[in-house]
Design goal:
The protein is α+β, with helices and mostly antiparallel strands. It contains seven helices and twelve strands. A hairpin with a 4-residue loop joins strand 7 (104-115) and strand 8. The chain binds adenosine-5'-diphosphate (ADP) and magnesium ion. The site of magnesium ion (MG) has 3 residues, from loops.
Length: 224
């Protein structure tokens, strides 16, 4: 079972993963007020569909004012969004996530999946976040880092630091990655997720790490 980005972010936030401030809207009429509540000079309007590649497909747009955000939402809600992950038929957009616009310094990739061969969780990380990870794996396989997790002990800080330094993070952000990855792992285990993918995990100009996008899928066998 898949859930929307805004739902995935609220699950992650419950476990202490930092996410941008934002609210979902089912109608464009609510978007102006949401943008005003968020404040700041830029908000981002993001189509909520069960597929990625929205940025390139026109499903993630920056707005410089609450009015502009509302205009964008008006066009987005009800549209059929086609991305390289939806297939040619696309997906109808029923709601949008309106989020604070953040100043991005770096975009990283981080995910946890179950390795079928060992039946253990594995963390996949890359300094080349923001783009299609399949493409990175194809053209620059050396940029994909993997760390197998012992499900008995869980993630140990050493593993998070190893990934952080592998992605070229300095000491400060590396320490933050230990906290963030531990929280994501806890969410993965406690929600019986089959996959949590954060692409991108961003480092802001202010030095914070946040999950800017989130994809969570649950193991259907674990639904209760
Ligand atoms: P998708 O993976 O479906 O393309 P993302 O949520 O990853 O959608 O967004 C695509 C890109 O849009 C991100 O890589 C980032 O550069 C930009 N972006 C998304 N949300 C924000 C935000 N809140 N602030 C600033 N930029 C954003
Ligand atoms: Mg993304």
């Amino acid at each position: 079972m898949k859930i929307h980005e805004y739902q995935a972010k609220s699950v992650l936030a419950r476990f202490g993963v930092p996410v941008p401030r934002g609210e979902v809207a089912f109608s464009a009429d609510d978007v102006g007020d949401i943008a005003r509540r968020l404040g700041g000079s830029v908000v981002v309007v993001k189509a909520q569909i069960h597929a990625g590649g929205r940025g390139k497909g026109g499903g993630v747009k920056l707005a410089k004012s609450p009015d502009e955000a509302q205009q964008i939402a008006k066009q987005m809600i009800g549209m059929t969004l086609v991305t390289h992950q939806t297939g040619p038929e696309g997906r109808k957009v029923g709601r949008v996530l309106v989020e604070e616009g953040l100043q991005i310094d770096r975009e990283l990739y981080l995910s946890i999946v179950i390795d079928r061969a060992t039946a253990c969780p594995v963390v996949i990380a890359s300094a080349a976040g923001g783009m299609d990870i399949e493409e990175v794996a194809e053209s620059h396989p050396e940029k994909i880092l993997r760390e197998a997790i012992d499900s008995g002990t869980g993630i140990v800080p050493f593993q998070a630091r190893k990934l952080a330094f592998g992605m070229g993070l300095g000491a400060g952000p590396a320490q933050k990655l230990v906290t963030v990855l531990t929280a994501i792992y806890k969410a993965f285990i406690e929600t019986d997720a089959s996959m949590i993918e954060i692409n991108p995990l961003i480092l802001t100009k202010g030095g914070d790490l946040l999950a800017l996008d989130a994809k969570v899928a649950f193991d259907d066998n674990a639904m209760y």
